[in-house]
Amino acid sequence: MVYDLIVVGSGSVGAAAGFYATQAGLSVLMIDSAHPPHNQGTHHGETRLIRHAYGEGERYVPLVLRAQTLWDELERQSGERIMHRSGILNLAPHTSSFIQNVIQSAKTWQLTVEILQAEEVRARWPQFTVPDGYLGVFEPHSGFLKCEQAVRSWVQLAEQAGCAQLFNCPVTHIDRDGDLQQVTTSDGIFRARKLLISAGTWVSHLVADLPVAPVRKVFAWYQADGRYSENNQFPGFTVEMSDGSHFYGFPADNNALKVGRHDGGQLMQTPEDRKPFGSIAVDGNESFTFLRKFLPGVGVCLHGEACSYDNTPDEDFIIDTLPGEPNRLIITGLSGHGFKFASVLGELASEFAQEKPFSFDIKPFSLDRFN
């Protein structure tokens, strides 16, 4: 059989692509080395923030707004709660380019935000100890996504729509057979007219010379009472410290508040380098200084997990066809801020498979920017 589309890597973006392409009437084969959702990629750990006023640059805003529409649709299609509109509080020094980008993107796209001085943040959320000289930007319509439930829903909906799925089956080689894309796995060889490579952290094992660096990351849950819960209007948050380090977190669930550090981490050469949480001495205290300074009422570390980022040099995504391969799309290099876009990136992959023009300008995410 010749498929219309083969998806290599069926985690977040790949799961979305498999569903949207199948929904569009294409014959699709989703392949993954594990069984998504799983903890070997970048989509585990229960939750991911979704921010609309975007500190990484306003070019992302139209994408994330479309992604939000698709997340809301996925809730209706799956019957599962995926989006929690807890609001997001962004905190950073007045001089931070990140916080200024948040403000500018909100202004350009007419997003609802509240700009707060440090004393206003402290009055509204006394759980935070915010230094003078900081700005807060609160996004009331943003929040967090249940990431594993989202992937599970896409996989199930795609299967129900007739998508073929081959899981726990690593891809060993990608090639061409005439005009067709050819994918070799431990279970056999498969062919399609179009190919999506969304293999995440170890994409360089399949595509040589990509400007993508695998980085080991950790996040952890800390003891926190009901004051930090979504029911008490405690928001998701991003915080830039005075030294430039970035932390993020979520409302507490079952008295456990999840926190992670966006920057830093350990470069990896092989999958074995992604050691479990606690294997490296700094894992347990990575967020200690941040918590003592900004959330001093949060208690001890309860448990943690390791994950991975697929970082590009500029931390912007790669969305492009490979050189000389117009029927081979790669979506990678999501650099630790990609899950919120998984829905719209999957829709873009579906447009590619249908030979439709892309709904958004993807030129900023092309490979040739690294040349």
Overview in brief:
The protein has 371 residues and is α+β, with helices and mostly antiparallel strands. It is 22% helix and 31% strand.
Number of domains: 2
Gyration radius over CA: 20 Å
The oligomeric status of these chains comes to single chain
Mean pLDDT: 97
Family: Belongs to the MSOX/MTOX family. MTOX subfamily.
Cofactor: FAD
Pfam families: DAO
Enzyme class: oxidoreductase
Topology overview:
Elements: E1 2-8, H1 12-23, E2 28-31, E3 47-50, H2 61-78, E4 83-84, E5 88-93, H3 97-108, E6 114-117, H4 118-124, E7 134-139, E8 143-146, H5 147-160, E9 164-166, E10 171-177, E11 180-185, E12 188-197, E13 213-223, E14 236-240, E15 246-249, E16 256-261, E17 266-267, H6 288-294, E18 301-311, E19 318-322, E20 325-332, H7 342-353
Parallel strand pairs: 1-2, 1-12, 2-9, 5-14, 12-20
Antiparallel strand pairs: 3-8, 4-8, 5-7, 6-7, 10-11, 11-12, 13-16, 13-17, 13-18, 14-15, 15-16, 19-20
Give a verbal description of the structure.
- The protein has 2 domains: 162 residues, FAD/NAD(P)-binding domain (3-Layer(bba) Sandwich), CATH 3.50.50.60; 152 residues, D-Amino Acid Oxidase, Chain A, domain 2, CATH 3.30.9.
- Helices cover 22% and strands 31% of the residues.
- The chain is built from 7 helices and 20 strands.
- β15 and β16 form a beta hairpin.
- The radius of gyration is 20 Å and the shape is globular.
- The two termini are 38 Å apart.
- The model has no long low-confidence stretch (mean pLDDT 97).
